[in-house]
Amino acid sequence: MRVVLSTYGSRGDVQPLAGLAVQLRELGAEVRVCAPPDEEGARRLAAVGVEMVPVGESVRSVVRKALPDPGDFPRRVAAMVANFHAAVAAAAEPGGAVVATGVFPAVAGAQAAAEAVGARFAYAALQPTMLPSPHHRPFEFPLQPYRPGLTDNRELWADNIRTMNALFRDPVNAHRASVGLPTVDNVRDHVFTDRPWLATDPLLGPWPQPAELEVVQTGAWLLTDDRPLPADLSAFLDAGEPPVYVGFGSMPLRGAPDAARVVVEAARQQGRRVVLARGWADLAPADGADDCFAVDEVNQQALFPKVAAVVHHGGAGTTTAAALAGTPQVVVPQMVDQPYWADRVAELGIGVAHDGPVPTVESLSAALGRALTPEVGARAAEVAGGIRTDGAAVAARLLLG
Description:
Blueprint: E1 2-6, H1 11-26, E2 30-35, H2 39-47, E3 51-54, H3 59-64, H4 73-91, E4 97-100, H5 104-117, E5 120-125, H6 153-178, H7 187-192, E6 197-198, E7 216-217, H8 231-238, E8 244-247, H9 259-269, E9 274-277, E10 292-295, H10 300-303, E11 309-312, H11 316-325, E12 329-331, H12 338-348, E13 351-353, H13 361-371, H14 374-384, H15 391-400
Parallel strand pairs: 1-2, 1-4, 2-3, 4-5, 5-6, 6-7, 8-9, 8-11, 9-10, 11-12, 12-13
């Protein structure tokens, strides 16, 4: 059977699909991944021998541009729907399967392609807050804020249908009609289906009950990483006490141009050296001191057990990797699902949620001080033992069973 996995997102969206692809291939499936042509994702897929079909613009090039004109939004949605429909339809086969995650227009294009080809379709959320639930509120789109007076989560999710229709229904339906598919009234629920998958760890990112929506929680889709750490990084780690890792992944940090100085000084206030991940914000130490080591993309599974704390933006993948390592976290959430992960880290007692997206030396130093206490370290180690590692295998068996 041929399975097509599809996403438009950064490494945090592509790497889980790589983990699922490996498990599917071990069960005999032929797998292709439709994803944006970013180097990090392409490299991870190539490393495990999974064929990648590049779709659309590099996400990194998009986030580095000036903020787009809101008036151009419908055209960009239509282009993404069409691009992913074309790529997935060309890769899929009748009787096969398509699994999609990432931003909504890309999922809508993949779903329409599966429908047109005659392949089974599954939508997979990489965080609980993407799915309607009485236990959390929907993500608030900048172009479509919550209606005044709505506070109940059920009411907000009902209104979210109006929001999603306003943003996406016309371009999605125009494309569906152009390829001979029927149009839909409720675009959100049609694309997400009535039985979506949730690829998060049940302890770290649970799906609380009761809930009206039937959700299949598989566990997080992890990709085993056997790459050794670079020799110079290993030498830095061995040269002193465990440092603090600081990295913000694909976040450009437009509101925090001085972030590198802030995080290094905050760690120094706690008497800690720093491993600074450059990321898409191009963070770099300013003073060249030997207590700070800058890295590009690195094996987090090998690195995180060797550091004293992980300071990050709250992406699902980094949160899970730090939790699995048993290392305390400080989450500085920037957008979308990241406040959710910050709250979960705080609720579980495995780290600290920073108040707001822009840290100061004082605020980050205080958060680090709390995260580095023995109590948080012990709790992080305890929770690590409850994190499952079989989510991708569960999903693969579910798809092919």
